[in-house]
């Protein structure tokens, strides 16, 4: 049976927005698993997402305080339908990212790494075969034309239907 994923990051509530957009809540409700790559800013958002998500995996980011750091790891891992996922907030500069991630998470440790921090969507594969995904931010577009989140499906050890979804605020 396939697992529908929602990937989000950098929600920055209530600093960048007062609430998550309705489209994000609908996506949370329809996903089999929500993955959040950090920079929540407030614990209330974590509580709300954990309360609504069928399954949840998340990490803290550089803007998250002591309470979130106590509740969430810096790096999280989970096997989802035969694929090894990792989640981390920051991966450093775009230049050289694939090589750094192979060095950090290669050697058959991960198949997919979800990250955030830049608010810039990213989808690439390292020379070692790790799929790198950054969903952008659903609340703070920074230098991007729109806010974003990502959806994907894991089916029998295969990641498919990866889609960058624009989010209206």
From TrEMBL:
Domain (Calcineurin-like phosphoesterase) ranges: 4-155
Pfam family for this entry, one: Metallophos_2
Keyword Transport: no
GO molecular function list: hydrolase activity; metal ion binding
EC number: 3.1.4.-
Record keywords: Metal-binding
InterPro entries on file: Calcineurin-like_PHP_lpxH (IPR024654), Metallo-depent_PP-like (IPR029052), Phosphodiesterase_MJ0936/Vps29 (IPR000979)
Domain of life, per lineage: Bacteria
Cofactor(s) listed: a divalent metal cation
Family the UniProt entry places it in: Belongs to the metallophosphoesterase superfamily. YfcE family.
Protein name (database record): Phosphoesterase
Biological source species: Orlajensenia leifsoniae
């Amino acid at each position: 049976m396939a697992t529908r994923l929602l990937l989000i990051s950098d929600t920055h509530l209530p600093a960048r927005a007062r609430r998550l957009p309705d489209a994000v809540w609908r996506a949370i409700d329809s996903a089999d698993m929500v993955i959040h790559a950090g920079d929540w800013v407030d614990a209330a958002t974590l509580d709300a997402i954990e309360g609504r998500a069928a399954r949840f995996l998340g990490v803290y980011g550089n803007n998250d305080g002591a309470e979130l750091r106590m509740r969430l790891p810096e790096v999280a891992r989970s096997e989802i339908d035969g694929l090894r996922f990792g989640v981390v907030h920051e991966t450093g500069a775009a230049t050289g990212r694939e090589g750094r991630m192979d060095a950090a998470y290669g050697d058959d440790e991960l198949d997919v790494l979800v990250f955030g921090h830049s608010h810039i969507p990213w989808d690439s594969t390292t020379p070692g075969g790790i799929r790198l995904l950054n969903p952008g931010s659903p609340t703070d577009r920074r230098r991007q034309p729109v806010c974003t989140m990502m959806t994907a499906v894991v089916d029998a050890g295969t990641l498919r239907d990866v889609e960058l979804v624009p989010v209206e605020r």
